[in-house]
Amino acid sequence: MKLYNGRFAPNARRVRIFLAEKSLSVPMVDIDLAKMEQRSPSYTALNPFQRVPALELDDGTVITESIAICRYLEELNPAPPLFGANALERAMVEMWQRRLELSLLFPVAQAFRHAHPAMKDMETPQVAPWAEASKGHAIQAMAVFDEALRGREFIASDRFTVADITGLVALDFTKPARIAIPERFANLTRWRDALAARPSAQA
């Protein structure tokens, strides 16, 4: 198998962190997003949505969407259990992962895509009011996650899970999206700093 990767794409980073936490190594093919390689005919044949990452299996099957890729890798390599170890834990991980993805990572990404000059050729048209609204949505979500993290080391379980990966990637993506994390969210900042200190965060 091989992973089509984008060095600066947050969803590709989610998969790289997941691989690092599993101590797995997968050959990677870097797709240069700045050069629009994701829109090439060869890559479009792999993923018609022209996004990274994509995992191509040895038989030619292609899995796209970062969490789908991670689920496949989890099935092949169940330890450590980053999607949960029992029915309740799996449900909680799914819940928090979805909340972080839809309520935080998505609006942060929208703020970036619709305002950053580097995205002018990828996001057409850029809608500046949507970028500003997305920033507000992200900060509203941060308040919820900050409260949920009160007295907790991890967001979904008593151990590190894929939900924490999504949270770290979303919070780190606030910098290029030009969203300042309010200082009052001390729990959120503590959590982000602890996750960023893990070796996998450098993947």
Description:
This protein is α+β, with helices and mostly antiparallel strands. The protein contains seven helices and four strands, in the order E-H-E-H-E-E-H-H-H-H-H. It has two domains: 75 residues, Glutaredoxin (3-Layer(aba) Sandwich); 116 residues, Up-down Bundle (Glutathione S-transferase Yfyf (Class Pi), Chain A, domain 2), CATH 1.20.1050. A four-stranded mixed sheet has the order 2-1-3-4, covered by helices on one side. Helix 1 links the parallel strand 1 and strand 2. Helix 4 packs antiparallel against helix 5, helix 4 packs parallel to helix 6 and helix 5 packs across helix 7. The longest helix is centred in the middle third of the chain and has 27 residues. 38% of the residues are buried. The model has no long low-confidence stretch (mean pLDDT 97).
Q: Would you tell me which CATH topology of the largest domain applies?
A: Glutathione S-transferase Yfyf (Class Pi), Chain A, domain 2
**Uncertain ranges:** none
Structural class: alpha+beta
Number of strands: 4
- Rg, rounded, reads 17 Å
What is the top-level CATH class of the largest domain?
A: Mainly Alpha
N→C terminal distance: 19 Å
The order of strands across the largest sheet is 2-1-3-4
The total tally of domains equals: 2
Shape: globular
- What is the CATH architecture annotation of the largest domain? Up-down Bundle
Order of helices and strands: EHEHEEHHHHH
Tally of individual helices = 7
Beta percentage is 5-15%
Helical percentage: 40-55%
Mean pLDDT: 97
